[in-house]
Please model this.
Amino acid sequence: MSTIAAAHPPEIRERRYLLDREGVLGPLMLLPAVVYIVALVGFPLGLAIAYSMSDVTVGDQGLDWVGFRNFVDVAKNGTFQKALRNTFIFTLVSQVLVLTLANILALVLSADFKGKRLVRFLVLLPWTTPIALGAIGWLWLLDPVYSPIDWVLRQVNLLGPGTIFGPRGNMYWTAKADLAQLSVLLIHTWRTLPLATVILLAGLTAIPQDVKDAANVDGAGFWRQLIYIRIPLLLPIMAVATLFGMVFTFTDMTVVYVLTRGGPIDNTQVLASWAYFKGIEGGNLAQGAAIAMFLFPVLAGVAVLMLRMARRTETT
Amino acid sequence: MAVVETRGLVKQFGENAPAVAGIDLASADGEFLVLLGPSGCGKTTLLRMIGGLEPPTAGDILIGGRVVTNLPPRARQIAMVFQSYALYPHMSVANNIAFPLKAAKVPKAEQQKKVAWAAGILGIEGLLDRRPRQLSGGQRQRVALARALVREPNVFLLDEPLSNLDAQRRASARDELQGFQRRVGTTTIYVTHDQVEAMGMGDRIAVINQGRIRQLGTPREIYDDPADTFVATFLGSPPMNLIPRNGHLLGFRPEHVAPRQMLEGAGGDLVPIHFLATREEYLGAERLVYGEVEGTKAVARFPSTVDVPAEPGRGYEFAVLARDLKRFDAATGLRVPGPA
Model:
C-alpha cells in the first residue's frame, strides 16, 4: 500500500496573470461603454434637467434657479396643447398602421416566391435612408406646385375642376392643416415600417416548422393558423417592434422640421420640433429643455417595458 | 381505421440522389408498422409524404383505399406526433387537445367531452389547465398523443416520439405507447432509428436505407432472416458477424457462437468456427468477446451465467448451428437461399 501523502518537494504556486483575473478584466472591458453612456447620454440629460429649471438663454448662459417656472410657462402656451396632442397622435396612429402593414408584409416575405430578395431589399430601403434625405424626398413629392402625386391625381381625373379633390389644380399637402398632419403621419409610417417588418419576419421564422406542420395536420386552414397560432406566437415580438417604433416616432423632429417646420400655424408641431424651435432657433435654452423634458416620462416608461421584455426573453 | 398504401413513391430534393427512391408499402388495418433506418435514409420524408406535409415527386399515396396524393394534410384524416411534440406553446393543455376539434368545427359541448375522453385515456386529466412549458417530457408526449387521438383519425403518424425522453422514461413510454395503440386499434406508422423501439413495438418493421425498403417483416423475420447484409448488420447490437468464405459472406449472430460441446446437445449440424479472441468486455448480464475468424473481425456474446473460457490472445474451437448460419452474396450483399 502506498501512502497518498508522500514527501513533496516545496511547491511553487503559479500566479494568475493580471488579465486573467475577472475582477480586473471585467471592469476594464466595461469601461468604454460606461464612458460613452456617461459622456453622451448621462451628461446631456443632466444638463437638460438643469437647464429646464433655470433661466439660461443663448445670450445669458448663467444658470439661475427658477424652479418649475419654465414648465408652467410652456404648459400655458397654446402651442403646447397642439404639440402634445400631435406627438401622441402621430406616434400612436403611425404605430397602429405600422403593426398592421408589417404583419402583412412579413407574411408575404416569409412565403417563397421569385424575386423575394429584391422585394426584401426594397422594403428595407426606407430604413437605410437617412431620415433627413427621406424627408427631403417627400418634401418634393408633396410640393405645393410641382408635386408628382398631384400630377398623377390630375391625370386620373381626381384633382382639378369638377373632381372629388376639388377645383384647384393642387392639393397643397403641407399647407392645409389636415393634409399636413396626414403627410407627417404617413411619412412616419413609411419610415418605421421596414424595421417592424424585419423584426416580425424574424419572429415568424422563429416559429418552429413542427408547430406549423402540426397545425396543418390538425386541420387548421390559413386564417385559423394565422389567428390562433401565428399572431399569438408573434405577440411578444410585435411588442418589441412597437416599442422601438414608438421611441423613434415619439422623439423624431426631423420629419416635421424638414416637411412643415411645424406649420401651418403649429398644426403639425410636435414636442421635439417645438423644443428645437424654442431652444435652439429661438435661443431660449431653458424653455426648450423644459419642452423636451415632457417627453421624458413616456420614454422612461417605454424603456422600462423594453428592459422587462429583454429580461423575460433571457430567462425563458 | 384504414390501410395506408404507397405506390412507387419517390421524393427528390434538387439534384441530389432521391431521398425516397420508389417505395411500395402497404400497412394492414390497425397495424403498428415501424419504419426503421439510419438517419438520412428517407424514413421521415416518407412519413411526411404520407401526412401530406411534403408533396411526392412521383407515385401515389392511398389511405383507406382513397388516393390522397393531392390532398392537403387537413383533408387526410390523419394525426401526427412530432419528435418535438410541437405543442402550441401559448395554449393550455386542454386547448392544445381541443385544437383539431375546433378546426373541424365540432360543437363546444362535444369538444369538452372528447377532450375529457382523450385526456382520460392518456391519464392527463390533472394537467388540462397547464401550459406546455410546465410539463415534463413524458407529459408533453402524452398531450401530443391526446391531441392526435382526440379526433379519432384513420391513421397515426409518429415521428420518433420517444427520442426526446431520457433512457429510463423511454422503456416505460414504449410500453405505454404500444398499450395505447392496442387499445385504440388505429393503424399506426412509427418512424425511428432505434432498433430496440422497432423490435419492441412493431407488428412489422420496414427497414429502409438510401430511400428504399430493404426488408419488410415481423421483428422475428427481419432479425432471424435478414434479406441482405444491410439488414443483417443494422439490427442486432453487436451486429451479425460476416465472414467471407468461398465467394460468399457467412453470417451468424454473436449469440449463436458457442464452444462445440455446448451445442452438441442442441440437435442439428454444427459448423466449426475457429475463434481467435483478442479482447473481452464484461457488461454485467453478458460478456462480449471480440476476436477474429479467418482474419475477419467477429464478436461472440455469452450470457454471464455461462462460463465460457475466452482469454485474449488464445484461439478457441467454437461452432455455430448450421440453421443459424446465413449466406449472402459477396458482391450484392443479398441473401443466398439454401443451407450454408
User: Anything to note?
Assistant: Chain B has two domains: 4-229, 238-336. The first strand of chain B starts at residue 4 and ends at 11.
